[in-house]
Each structure stands twice: as C-alpha cells, then as structure tokens.
Amino acid sequence: MSEYYILKKYWIALLHHKLCMTENNENFKVKVSTEIGRLRKLLIHSPDSGLGKVVPSKAQDWLFEDIVHLDTIRKDEYDYYVKLLMYFLDPAKIKGKLAEIDSDTSGRKFFKPDHPGFHGSLAVIEIQNLLSDILKDPIIRKKLAASVCAIEGCTYKLQLQLIETEPAELAKIFISGSMADDLMIFAPIPNLIFTRDVGITINSHILLNKPAKKARSRETLLMRYIFFNHPLFAAYTGNILEIPDAAQHFLRPGEEDEHRTTLEGGDVMMVSDNHVLIGCSERTSAYGANEAIKLLFDNNVVNKVTVVKIPNKRDFMHIDTVFTQVKRNVWTLLRSISGNQTSGPAEPIYYLIEPDHKDVTEIIQFSKNREKPVSFDSIEALLNDISKNELGSAEETQFIYSGNGAFPYDAREQWTDSCNLLAIKEGVVLGYDRNDKTIEAFKSNGFNVVHVKDLIQDLESGKASAEEITDTLILMPSAELSRARGGFHCMSLPLLRDEL
Ligand SMILES: NC(=O)NCCC[C@H](N)C(=O)O
C-alpha cells in the first residue's frame, strides 16, 4: 500500500475514534460554583506504583514526609474513599456488589484502572484512564512523549521507544516513571493523588495550575494534554484558563521565588457563584494570583476575588490546609492563621516587636467594578461575610477549630489535615480518623461522627442512604495517606456540584 493510502486509512480511523468518544460524552457537564453543593463528578487518581518507589533520600524532594506502604495505602485506606464516592456519586456501580468487590478472589480489580474489571465510572473519574484514552491518538502520543522526554531529560532513543508503547501501558509509565519491567526511567509523580492541585473548576471554566515545585511539573503537563484533548472536555476547550509568565519575569535577575508566577489548585476555592478565594502561600505567588485575577475578570468568570495571604511555610502549603467549608454557615480552620488580633487582650510582646511580615495573614478583596480593593481583619470575618451575604445563611456562622483550638493539638492536627475536608454534600465531610481533638470539636458542634467502614456497611444494607445523611464527619483511615501531606480536599478535583 502506498504511503498516501496508509495515511488516509489512519486519519479515517482516528476521526471515527474521536467522533465515537464525543458522541458518548455529549452531555458531560462541567460546573462548580460552590465548595459544598452535592458532589456529582470529580477527578481522582488512586495511588499508583510510583508511590511505592519513593525512597527516604528523595521523599522531601518529592514532597512526601515519609515513605508509604503501597498495599496498605491502597487496600486499607484509598479504596474506602473510592467505595464511599461510588455510593454517593454512582451507586449503580457498587450497590449490591460490595461483597464481590471486596472478596479475596476479586484481586481488587474494581480499583485497578488498567484492569477490564475496573469500575470505569464517569462520575468518579480516574485520571490514568483519561490519559490512556488520549494516548490512543498517535499524534498526541508523539507530542506528549516528546514533551515528557524534554522535561525529564530522556534520550531520543527512549523517546522513540515510548512512542511505540501501547497507550494503557504508556499512561502507566508517564505516571509511575517505570517501564513494565520495573525499570525506572524518570521519577514518579506520587503527588498526582492530590488532583485538586492540578486544576480547578470555576463555574464552567477550568483554571490550570502552574506548579511551584519541580516535583509536580509532569503532573501539570499531563493534565494540560488531558483537558485540551480528551473528548469529555471537548465542549470546554474554550473555557480552559492558563496562567502565563509575566514578561518581566524573564528579565529579572536571579531566581527568587516571589517573582515567579505560580499557582496550585489547593489555593483556589470557589465559595459562591461569583466569588473565588485565592491563597498566596508557599506555592502560589502574588504574581500567580495577579495573573489568575486578570484571567478571571477578563473572561467574565467571576466578579470578585479575595486573596488570602497566609504564612509562607511548608506546614501551610495551600489555603485548603488551613481552612475548608463544611456547611453554608460552618467552616473548619486553624485558629493561629486567623489574623484576628481583636479576639482577646494581646500580650505585651505583641506591641514590643514588629511581627515578621511573612507570618501575618492578610485578606484583600478585589472586585471587577471597584477601583480599590478592600481588606478584612480576619479569616473569620471573611468567611462570615461569605456565609451570610453570599450564601444567605440566617444562622450564626460556626467555626470549628483544628485541635479544638488548643495548643499543641491545633498544630499537630493541622499537620495531619484536620482542616482539609471534602464536602460530599452540604454538611457531610470526609476527614482523617487520627485528629482526635478536632473530631471532639465536631461532636460538640452538633455533628455526627461515623467511621467509613461502618457507613459503607450501612449504605450497602440500606440502613443509611446518601440522600438522607446530614451533618456528619466521616472518618477515613489515614496512617499512610497522611504521610503524603494532604487530605481529601486535596484528593479531589470536583467537576460538577449541585448549586446550593
Ligand atoms: N491542596 C493540598 O494541600 N494538597 C496537598 C499536596 C501534598 C503534596 N505532597 C505536596 O506537597 O504538594
């Protein structure tokens, strides 16, 4: 066959493939305008073999606090997250099948993205499969292999070998960093489980991140290709927002972090349909926030953006590590970053030394139609304003503090993500089972507390239902997951939530 015919055959097949996928996904909707409306669709990534390759000498560079035990993090921890999400978002996949899914003979196939028995939910969507889908297109495979090899410094021969690799296998390699025979060809990207950080849905737009840490740059590249090329997002390609580097950035001498334009998803919160919070933190620079605000205003995505500047520390890498929303009038947060200087008499030292500017929380609100920004004295004041004036709460705003607001439990439990909760519906949140004092604080604020293992049994038996459950903190096993330094807010990229 002549080259012309081979090429023609290939294009027809490709077009057909694209059309089939697009037709199936015509009704796929992307819309998030709240942090707490009933969750309907999200992107996740289950711990892949790359997590089992983190070595102690690299753990810090790869942004893990420790090495993790792969089997435990999967079977005893993350799988419960997937099961719980299924009961709430895609019950037909799990209800009545739990015993089979959990049986020893099933070999966890329900949870393995590359297994024919994988759940394949279009509500609880696994990133690895989206990646494998787009890699079926030979042009994308070629481009992405070249890009990955460029950022990872691979040889040209390896690049050619990757291009020839079967798509599902290649997706695994791009994520885990290792070939099928276990040979490591580049570093893993163990932080891909924290899908929140790679992109954020803001109304019907998707804001892509610009990571501060090199360890997270391959994640960004893969997500960029997925959002721009996967047929699921075909109707939204015009709504993808990318943060450019400011021209001055290239001209500045040195490599100071504060002049970089960086933004990670954990620093972005969609609190009401017209209002986004952006954190300035260890990961999101003031320049990153500046570019994001311009994009959001210029594209008429929202009219209001509040920048919450928190201390630049590893402990508080994103704003969602220090506060998240539970109900329209309930928030959980770390008291020490509140910024509130008026809650009690300040000690003399407060007047004797200048506070270190980097340790001060500042809150600055920008409105599209207002020339000058306004500021808030404390995080509580801002959150109260959102609860009352934007979400229409008639009740008093409640703040549930990490560690019940008591030193040293506040800091200890914030470190293990007491403030990083994921609302699966208003008032029903997922958090780690290890944060005892915070759990007590939830109880004393009128919340039920239930362990995920018990809840799953009740959801399966019909004793509990996703529709009826209210005001509940669901405790998730956390011994291994918390070593990766993120909670369930970080482990979720919501694509669709009901409006409040
Ligand atoms: N939104 C979040 O706070 N994500 C947690 C990211 C944890 C990850 N090990 C990191 O350091 O980037």
TrEMBL record:
Record-listed E.C. numbers: 3.5.3.6
Pathway as given in its UniProt record: Amino-acid degradation; L-arginine degradation via ADI pathway; carbamoyl phosphate from L-arginine: step 1/2
Keywords of the record: Hydrolase
Keyword Disulfide bond: no
Catalytic activity: L-arginine + H2O = L-citrulline + NH4(+)
Residues forming coiled coils: none
InterPro entries: Arg_deiminase (IPR003876)
Biological process (GO), any one: L-arginine deiminase pathway
Example of a GO MF term: arginine deiminase activity
Family note: Belongs to the arginine deiminase family.
Protein name per the record: arginine deiminase
